[in-house]
Amino acid sequence: MTVPTIMGTETEYGISVKNARDPDPVAASTLVVNIYKDRGIKGITWDYDQESPLMDARGFVSEGETDIPDQENNSLINDVLANGGRYYVDHAHPEYCTPECTNARDLVKYEKAGDLILDLSRLAAQELLPTNQEIIIYKNNSDYKGHSYGAHENYLMSRNVPFQDIVDGLTPFLVTRQPITGSGKIGAENGASETDYQISQRADFFETEVGLSTMVARPIINTRDEPHADEALYRRLHVIVGDSNMSEFSIYLKVGITAIVLQLIEQDVVGDEFRLSDPVLAIKTVSRDLSCKEPLALEDGREWTPIEVQRAYLELAHKHISTADMSDVVSDVMKTWEFVLDRLDEDPMSLDRHLDWVIKKRLIDAYLRRHNLTHSDHQIRMLDLQYHDIRPNKGLYARLLKNGRVERLLKHEEIVQAINNPPVDTRAYFRGMCLQKFPNEIHSASWNSMIFCTDDSSLDKILMDRPHFGTQEMTGDLLRDCTAAELVQAVLTSND
């Protein structure tokens, strides 16, 4: 079965309140999420009936309880967005989830729209605080106190692919893609060996190869089996090993090359031939190797550098993905992947307009020289953090972008438009347009359902269990011409 390429990301943001006497990140997160509801969609809640976070892809249900908020708290901590995404409070963080996208370029656009949504929320929430307090939001992965928060990726895959094939084929790729996807970090955490600077913010927090948890004993391959789609046909591969990226270029390659490798795994052309001897050790080794040349031990005795492993995956992609089957975006991702690998092989610092960890390292190195400091000085850690500040006038990445000193893929206007307009080629179109047209007749929503209340007495659930359905082409006329009641009747009748 050929599965359409559907992907999305989930980003947990760091949050703090400057000059707050008793900092409360949960309250701050709830404030910024709840205050964004200014479009008449306030009463719509999230449908938790479709969620199953304890299902394990290895064939069992993990022990534990799933916290489901009551109706009042559901409304406070959840915002279903007009662009088809979701914005909610996850523990002590505001989290933004993109709508479902079919290609890497669109996903960059919708992820960067999330950064703007967070900043709009911050500005609105700021008005309710004392004048001496300020909300600061960071798109990073660590508070430097031992806590890491995630930047998760999701990819639709065929249920027919054995999960062990995914483990075998994907683990070496994820470990060695860090020089492309890392956002850079001063120092070490979680008991890992000390270092001045490393490529990845997340690498130190991975402690096992395969597992279900996303918060303790984090695995390189996450086994959560929560498809948000027809579970007989699909699985949603939940990737938790990546960093939060500021660079459009880094996001683009991160999701683009991963989608290509998953296609190779589905085609059964990549197996365990690149299996690493110790993936958990290797992920930390790669993160600390700023030259990208330190060899990794493969299980069969070979020693390959991260770039050699990545080139092997790229060569398989060239061999098994025909040009005729490539979209323009996939073709560009392949060319860009090769360009970056060549640069990493020659001189990683030549990518100081492209990749987050290199951009940040160039900034830090210049500051160290200018002020005669060491990596352990407090100012350097603050510089690291400021790179991820989403405020346009304060964040270091934002200022580099404004001054034309980093590569970008998108026009700012495209990103602004993505705040309120869903992708047209996935079910996110149906979700987002229903929210915009019928906010008073929708009771709740989830990734794979919409629940309508059109007569003040009964609820009608529309299942959306195929992520590539519900597109503008399929539903645009219905949404334009029908009332909510007529839409529900038409969809339910067509499913009978």
Note down, in words, how this protein is organized.
Helix 1 crosses helix 3. With 496 residues, this protein is an alpha+beta fold. The two termini are 25 Å apart. Strand 4 (55-56) and strand 5 form a beta hairpin. It has 16 helices and 20 strands. It has a domain at 428-495. The model has no long low-confidence stretch (mean pLDDT 94). Strands 6-7-8-1-10-15 form a 6-stranded antiparallel beta sheet. Helices cover 39% and strands 16% of the residues.
Which features characterize this protein?
single chain, 496 residues, alpha+beta, 6-stranded antiparallel beta sheet, 4-stranded mixed beta sheet, 16 helices, 20 strands, globular
Mean pLDDT: 94
- Total number of helical segments? 16
Beta content comes to: 15-25%
The shape, in one word, is: globular
Strand order of the largest sheet: 6-7-8-1-10-15
Assign a percent range to the helix content: 25-40%
**Biggest sheet, in brief?**
6 strands, antiparallel
Query: Distance N terminus to C terminus?
Result: 25 Å
Summing up helix and strand content along with how strands pair, one would put the structural category as alpha+beta
Rounded Rg: 22 Å
Per DSSP E runs of 2 or more residues, the count of β-strands stands at: 20
